[in-house]
From TrEMBL:
Zn(2+) 2 binds at K98, H135, H173. It comes from Psychrosphaera saromensis. GO terms for biological process: 'de novo' pyrimidine nucleobase biosynthetic process; 'de novo' UMP biosynthetic process. Catalyzes the reversible cyclization of carbamoyl aspartate to dihydroorotate. The active site is at D246. PROSITE patterns: DIHYDROOROTASE_1 (PS00482), DIHYDROOROTASE_2 (PS00483). The lineage of its organism: Bacteria, Pseudomonadati, Pseudomonadota, Gammaproteobacteria, Alteromonadales. This is Dihydroorotase.
Amino acid sequence: MTQITITTPDDWHLHFRDGDMLNETVPATARCFQRAVAMPNLVPPVTTADMVSEYKQRILAARPKDSTFEPVMTLFLTNNTSCQDIIDAKAAGALAAKLYPAGATTNSDAAVSALDGMFPVFEEMQKQGMLLLIHGEMTAHHIDIFDREKEFIDQNMTRIVSAFPHLKVVFEHITTKEAVEFVLAAGDNVAATITPQHLLLNRNDLLVGGVRPHYYCLPVLKRNIHQQALRSVVATGSKKFFLGTDSAPHEKDKKENACGCAGCYSAWSAIELYTQVFDELGALDKLEGFASHNGADFYGLPRNSTSITLVKEDWVIPAEVTLPNGNPIVPFFGGETCAWKIKD
Ligand code: NCD
Ligand code: ZN
């Protein structure tokens, strides 16, 4: 196949950031995605209904002229989040709340350190029909970084899911075969997003022959058997897995640094790279479910009514993009050739 037309896709997990940066990130995503779930890990984080509404307005204001792109808003959970905060955020249009274990990733210091204290909040979310999005990694210093997702499943994910059988839970940016197995074995109320980098790469790509800071993200890339498990499961067409780029921009000098930031800025090439992966897998017929149907169905939103077409044609992803503040950023796979392209 050299051309494929699919329902316009949505991105169920990304980081737009704020301020000037929105003028870069929102158009980059709106070029091919109809909706995107906007992560709330701003500085300060989006912890109240008012902050949700205000952030939504800032994102909408950064849309290209005539764009019908719509952000899907989320609330950042802390140990101080109350049931009333959930009710108010829902009323303000937040469809989901994000659970970050404190210190798990970029701008998550204010997040949840005492998980058990959150159970009444999860109960309220279940009642309100609000989705729980989970960054599933343990953060205790002694736990090896490559085991943090598996440990989270054993210590936390299992008990959250069994305590709230009607709460919709998205296990975000899964990276391991244990996570694939967990999601497959769980009820219909549990699903997962998968990023392009975790389908395309494993930890050798990050570390062999030199450290590649632009491949560094959290959860960190795992060994190849885990990459294979992710590739295999998307090729089955299971409805429990859907597109979430985790596009997470950091300026070039923050990535190419003695203490480099975690995050891959994939908005400029994500749908093309996912298409390349599905083509490599001989599973192009499963791309539309993953990219355009499964996420909307799980969130209980209508599928999009428009479409996009991709053609099999080599192009080189820009090696650098200039941000509105004048600083450079290196897009994910910058300078590399991608085998699929959006048709103009
Ligand atoms: C994300 C970011 O930069 O905000 N970084 C990342 O490596 N994925 C946060 C996150 O999703 O963990
Ligand atoms: Zn993320």
